[in-house]
Write a structure and sequence with these properties.
With about 375 residues, the protein is an alpha/beta fold. It has a domain of about 220 residues: 3-Layer(bba) Sandwich (FAD/NAD(P)-binding domain), CATH 3.50.50.60. It contains 13 helices and 19 strands.
Length: about 375
Amino acid sequence: MGDTAVVVGGGIGGLAAAIGLRRVGWEVTVVERASVLDDAGAGISLAANGLRALDELGVGEAVREASRGQYRGGTRTPGGGWLARMDGAVLEKAVGTPIMAIPRSTLHRLLRDSLPAETLLIGSEAESVQQIGPGTVRVSCGDTVLDADLVVAADGIGSKVRSLLFPAHPGPVYSGSTVLRAITEQAVELRTDFELTWGRGAEFGHIALQDGRAEWHAVLNLPAGTRFADPLAELGRRFHDWHDPIPALLNATRTDAVLHHDVNELRTPLPSYTVGHIALLGDAAHGMTPNLGQGACQALEDAVTLAAALATGPTVEAALARYDAERRPRSQAVARAARQAGRVGQQLSHPLAVALRNAAMRLTPSRAAVRMILRHHGWVPPQLS
């Protein structure tokens, strides 16, 4: 069994993989192409499966201390009527924790703080990844060349490593939705911890953060590449007559704080998450739509599963085979479920379809909704200790 690894990508999945590998005795270098770690991003919700993974990585307690539990909220119509309510206390009783909300920048910092500073090689882009021998992979980053027993590709949905390993794969495709999001500049008065509001081909949601601010997002059905000269003004026009606190959230936000990204996904599943001594992880392996809030949680599951497999496998090859067998079916099933959730949720635009969906949601017992959530949140990690 080898003991040196290079992780390509310093996002949530890559940092978690590095932490996990170090916990089972590997020497790790994380290659991150960004030259400045400004931790751009808005907020993120972490479900029980992601929190359990963070516990196994040794950072769960710190993440919980910086997070806010999501206890009160649900899904509404633009006029403010409730389609479904979710009681976080019921979820906590079922899985041991409510969903927790945290600024993405804080999560990045906490993960980085769990690694020695010298582990991170910033401002370096992996230009090529080659298997140069039966057990050696070479990563070339300009003048820097790194040889390792294992490479973990956590370089996002546009993964360059994935395209090298699977040149015939079509890669990411546009989901049909684009998302604008931000964290408010100051604290806002909220009556709930989280909400989703579904209109016709549009969604607005918020999560309350520990310091009183809120992360909000707006999802719209638009052609790929659509951008607005003044995103806040455009959102104000589209959502001005939606219920409180939506206008207040927009008014509490700086224009330059708004992030705008098209929602892409790996609609064609990969045939494998491993090739030789290279493993794909997170969005590079199974980039999915955000409709279930499981993208980061699945990357965290990947990281713990990979580390556990390498800790117990007789060879790297056997460990990677186990990783692929355990992670590919589950993560691809979650990706399909997320895609379907978007199609029956935010992406619906026909008035009749929207009315039928709303009626079905009102008639669905809360117990059934909790059972659906548990399918994804109930994952239990392997132990790394």
